[in-house]
């Protein structure tokens, strides 16, 4: 609200530094992606025989890396089914880390990573500073893709009314 008031009072446009000044927004985005990333898993085909932790993956076999199982594993995250954006104050989000890979990793890191985070930040900033909402109780369904069981019905009102 402070950032919005500052921009409104000075009639200034938003800048990249404004985006970077909202670290908690990034925490909310990271936690949302950890719990409910639209991509549940990624398929890869072995181009040669590969051994991983004592398991042989023969050439031409396909393997699915299940991101949800990694993101919701209690070995990786304390209370993994609890939405807790404050956890990211202790975790480096964009570090090369197999525990958090909503945008892939390595040579296959999504080139739209920063653009999608920027778009989500703009959306969330406008939603939070312009509207109030009440969501009905709903639950996440993780298979075959992440979605809300009741499609998350909400009532939205402008803050001014």
Automatic annotation (TrEMBL):
<dbReference type="InterPro" id="IPR001128">
    <property type="entry name" value="Cyt_P450"/>
</dbReference>
<dbReference type="GO" id="GO:0016125">
    <property type="term" value="P:sterol metabolic process"/>
</dbReference>
<keyword id="KW-0408">Iron</keyword>
<keyword id="KW-0472">Membrane</keyword>
<dbReference type="GO" id="GO:0016709">
    <property type="term" value="F:oxidoreductase activity, acting on paired donors, with incorporation or reduction of molecular oxygen, NAD(P)H as one donor, and incorporation of one atom of oxygen"/>
</dbReference>
<dbReference type="InterPro" id="IPR036396">
    <property type="entry name" value="Cyt_P450_sf"/>
</dbReference>
<keyword id="KW-1133">Transmembrane helix</keyword>
<comment type="similarity">
    <text>Belongs to the cytochrome P450 family.</text>
</comment>
<dbReference type="GO" id="GO:0005506">
    <property type="term" value="F:iron ion binding"/>
</dbReference>
<dbReference type="InterPro" id="IPR002397">
    <property type="entry name" value="Cyt_P450_B"/>
</dbReference>
<dbReference type="GO" id="GO:0016132">
    <property type="term" value="P:brassinosteroid biosynthetic process"/>
</dbReference>
<keyword id="KW-0560">Oxidoreductase</keyword>
<dbReference type="GO" id="GO:0010268">
    <property type="term" value="P:brassinosteroid homeostasis"/>
</dbReference>
<keyword id="KW-0812">Transmembrane</keyword>
<keyword id="KW-0479">Metal-binding</keyword>
<protein>
    <submittedName>
        <fullName>Uncharacterized protein</fullName>
    </submittedName>
</protein>
<keyword id="KW-0503">Monooxygenase</keyword>
<dbReference type="GO" id="GO:0016020">
    <property type="term" value="C:membrane"/>
</dbReference>
<dbReference type="InterPro" id="IPR017972">
    <property type="entry name" value="Cyt_P450_CS"/>
</dbReference>
<keyword id="KW-0349">Heme</keyword>
<dbReference type="GO" id="GO:0020037">
    <property type="term" value="F:heme binding"/>
</dbReference>
<dbReference type="Pfam" id="PF00067">
    <property type="entry name" value="p450"/>
</dbReference>
